[in-house]
Every structure is written in structure tokens, then in C-alpha cells.
Amino acid sequence: MRAFLLDSSIAPLTRRLTHPTIINAAVLDTLERPIIFVANHQSHLDTPLILAVLPPKLRHHTVVGAGADFFFDRRTKGFFSSTLLGAIPIDRVRPSRASAELATQLLEDGWNLVLFPEGARTPDGLTQELKSGAAQMAIKVGRPVVPLFIDGTYEIFGKASDRIHPGSTTIVIGQPLVPHEGEKVSDLNDRITDALGVLGREAATDFFTARQPDQALPFPAPSRSWVEAWRTSEHRHQHEEPRRWPKMFGSRR
Length: 253
Prior knowledge:
CATH architecture: 3-Layer(aba) Sandwich
Number of strands: 7
Order of helices and strands: HEHEHHEHHEHEHEHEHHH
CATH class: Alpha Beta
Helix content: 40-55%
Number of helices: 12
Oligomer: single chain
Low-confidence stretches: 235-246
CATH topology: Glycerol-3-phosphate (1)-acyltransferase
Largest sheet: 7 strands, mixed
């Protein structure tokens, strides 16, 4: 039922709202389950967008780690989150053995897993520090991590938005990161961070520019002070005009 709903309604509607451009999509055709997908987190649209761009052979066998405090705080919300998106509860407040064991069991059973290592949606469109849960999981089960950078969903339906503003997005697919034998969690997490930084810059520029020294997008963003200044600027917009947020990474609209 979930596969039917994804293919017939959720994925087409998401594509219509976000008009995704997929860079390096050929990587997805070479993947063998199970895979741990990690992505930056700009919006609640990130989850359906990832599912929409995955080929059916991956989409139909993918679950998504979702904040237990938000998506599973009520029985009805948890039912629809798990039924429609394949969400599983992840405790964001403190480490949870139950969450880790559930995710591990699903990976061992052949299910792909989507995780957002930033832990929560960006409040302002800028990058946040990555937590190490995805790296821990990858080392524990010995499966590769595929980084995904999503650009544009913040402008469409960011944390500060009160409604959806249809636009365009870019999703850059990275090469699989296979845990090395004996690799530390911190080292793999650094590799994931570096990969997402390069993909983030590629979304705004091009393949070669993104891979020049010191060009990768930093996780976390080094300063948020300009965002606060912009928010409080009297010249940001007139009250009768719709609120307009600047493009953070070069999204096409």
C-alpha cells in the first residue's frame, strides 16, 4: 500500500511542487541494498523529495529516520508518518537503544535508511553541525553511506514558512562512502561532512569549482550573524509585499 501511495500520489505531487534537477543520478542505478542515505535538512519536503527521486527498486525498500518527538508524539501522526513515508522513530533528545536497534534490524533485513545528521531542519537556510549517528550505524552494519545534498526546499517550505511556495530544487548525489576496516566513527563522520560540503557547493556552482581547495560548503556555517542582520533590516521588504528569502545555495526557480 505504501509503495502504491508513493508512486501514485506522493512522488508525483512532490515533483510538481519542487521541480527537482538531479545531478549524478547514475549513481543510484549502481547501488545495491541496503544503503544508508544521509542528507542535509532544509524542510519537511526533504523526505518526500528524496523518496521521489529514488528509483522504484530503492524507493520501495527505504525507511526514513524521523524525530520521535515530532512525528510520533501522537498515535495518528505516527501512523500516517510510517504508512505514507516509511518513517521510523529516532529519539533526538537523548541516545535511544530502541531506535538504534530498530534501524539496525531494518538494515540487516535489507531496507535502505534515510537519515538527516543535522538532527533538525535548518532554522535559517544555513548548514548545521552533523551528528555522528549515521557514521555509527554504517560502521556497525558495514554498509556504505551515500550523501545527498538538497538545495531549494528551504525557499519552498522552510521552517519559517507558513505555506508552500512551489519552486525548483537541486539534488546532488554523491559517491558511496564505504567504512574502512577499523575506521573510527569520528573519521567516517568527517568524510560524510566533507562529502556533503562538496556536494553543497556543486549545487551552487559546478563539479570542478566545488572540488577546488577551500570551496566546500562548511558544516556548520561559520557565522549566522548576517542572517540576523538581514532579518532585522528595515529595508528587507515593505509590509505590503510578500516576504522574500534570499537563495542560500543557488537554487533555480
